Amino acid sequence: MGFVPPPLLLRFVQGMPEISAIQTLKLRARGLYEIATGRGQYSAQERNIGLLYLDIIAASVLSAAASFNGAFALRLGASNFLIGVMNSLPALVTMLGMVPASGLLESRTRRWALMLRSLLVTRILFLPFCLIPWLVPAPWRALAFVLLVSVRFVTVLPFAAGFDSVLAEVVTPNLRAQVFSWRNILATGTIVVFLALARPWLQLAPFPANYALVYALGGLAGMVSYHFVAQLSVPEFQPALPAGRTGWAASINMAREALRTEREYRRFAVNSLLGSVGAYLASPLYVILYVKGLGASDGWIATSTLLANLAAMVGFYLFRRLLPRVGESLCVKVLWPIIGLLPLAVGLLHSLDAILAVIFLHSLLAPGLNLSHYNILLEVCPRERRALYISTFSALANALAFALPLAAVALADVVGVRQVLISAGVLWVSSGLLFTVNPVRVPDTSRQGPAPQR
Fold first, then answer.
1. What secondary structure letter does DSSP report for 453?
2. Per-residue pLDDT tens for 325-384?
3. What share of the chain is helix, strand, coil (3-state, %, to 5)?
4. Cα 307 to chain center, whole Å?
5. What is the pTM (predicted TM-score) of this model?
6. How far is CA 200 from CA 90, 211, 331, 368, in A?
7. How far apart are alpha carbons 2 and 315 in whole angstroms?
8. Phi then psi for 17, rounded to 5 degrees?
9. Three-state SS for 175?
C-alpha cells in the first residue's frame, strides 16, 4: 500500500518525519492549493489553519509595499513634519482607539461581520495609493498620501482590536506556537522575496510609475488576503457589554476593570510594559548610530535588514520545535534578558561587522520570546473578554511606543547616542528579570493538548 497523505493539520503543524522534506513541501503546497480553491476534505480547524497561511502570504506583500511609505512620501514632497506625523500616528491611534474599538466589538453579537467590514474598507483604501501622482495636484500629493495612510489606521481599529481573539478561537492552544511560527516564517519569506524584487525595479523604473506598480501589487494582494480571511470559520460571541458602554469614558473604566480584576493579566502587563521600556528607548537610536556615528552605507542597512529577516525565519522554524519542549514560561524568563543585550552591545561596539553578528543573534532568538510572550498574553485574557484585555495592553504598550522614542532622541542630543543605547540595554536586561521574580502563572499551552477555555 502506498503512502497515504496525513491530514493538512499534521502536514502543516506536526511535520512528517517518515517522508522526505521535498515530499513534505509538495504536500503542504497541495494542501494550500486545495484550500485556496475550495477543494479537499478538511476539518474546520484544518481549513482555518490553511486560510491563515494563505492570508499571511498575501498580506505580507501589502506590508512589504507599505514599507516604502516614507520614501514615497518624500518623493511626493513631504516635509519632515509630515513624515514625523505619519510615523507617529500608528502608536497614537492605537493608544487612543484600541480600547473603544474593543468595547464596540464586545457590545455586538456579530463581531466577526463588523471586523470584516473594517478590514475590507482598510484594504480598499490602499488601492488609491498608486493613483495619487496622477489624480492629485502636485502641491497636495504628499498631504493626500499621508492623510490616506492616516485614515487607514483608524478604519482598521475594529479588526485589529479583535483579530487576536479570533486567532485564539480558531487555533487550539496546543497548536498556537506551531501555527504562529509558520505564519511568521511565511510572512518573513514573502517580504524578503518581494523586497528583493522591488528594490531594483524602484531604482531602474521612472518615478512615479515605479512606486505605482509596487503599490498596485500590494493593493491587489491585500484584497486577496481579505478573501482568505473572510472564509475563516469563526464562532460568534455573546455580547459581553451593553450596547451603550462603548464611549471613551466607558472604555477607560473597562481598561481599569481589566487591570484590577485579573491578577495574572496584571502581572503580565506590569512585567511586559516595564520590560519594554529599554526596547522603546533604543528603537530610534540604532539607525542614527549606524549612519551618523559609524558611516553605514545604504547597502549595509539593506544587508542588516535582510540578515535580520533571514535569522528571524530560522528562529521561528527552530522555536516552533523547541517551544513545545521547554514551554513559554521558561523561554520568557531566559530570553527576555538575553534579547535586551542588543542596545548594550550596539552601544559598546565600534565595528559594523561585529554589529551585524549581534543583529543576527538577536533576530535568531527574538522569535522564541515573541511566540512565548504572545501565547502567554492569550492565556491571561478571559475568553469572552479577550478583545478588551488585549486592546488594553496594546493601548498601554503603544503609549510607551509613542512617548519613549521621542524622549530617547531628545536625551541623546544631550548625553549622546551611545550613552542612551547603553543605558537602555542595562534597563532592558534588568527589567527582563521581572518574569522571574514576579512570574505569570498560566499553563504552557504549547506543551499540552487542547486546554479548556477560560
1. P
2. 888 899 999 999 999 999 999 999 999 999 999 999 999 999 999 989 988 998 888 877
3. 80, 0, 20
4. 18
5. 0.77
6. 29, 12, 39, 33
7. 35
8. -65, -15
9. helix
Query: What fold does the segment set 262-454 form as a domain?
Result: Growth Hormone; Chain: A; (1.20.1250)
* Buried-exposed string 287-318: b where 16+ CB fall within 10 A, e elsewhere: eebbeebeebeeebeeebeeebbbbbbebbee
* Dihedral sign (CA 17, 22, 27, 29): positive
First to last CA, the chain: 44
Q: Which residues contact 38 (CB under 8 A, 6 or more apart)?
A: none
Domain boundaries, the chain: 1-42, 44-253, 262-454
Transcribe 345-406 into DSSP letters.
HHHH---HHHHHHHHHHHHHHHHHHHHHHHHHHHHHS-GGGHHHHHHHHHHHHHHHHHHHHH
- The cell for 368 is 522564541
> What amino acid is encoded at 33 in this protein?
Y
**Buried b / exposed e along 43-62 (16+ C-beta atoms within 10 A):** eebbbbbbbbbbbbbbbbbb
CATH number of 44-253: 1.20.1250.20
Residue 25: other Cβ atoms inside 10 A: 11
User: Cell numbers at residue 144, please?
Assistant: 493626500
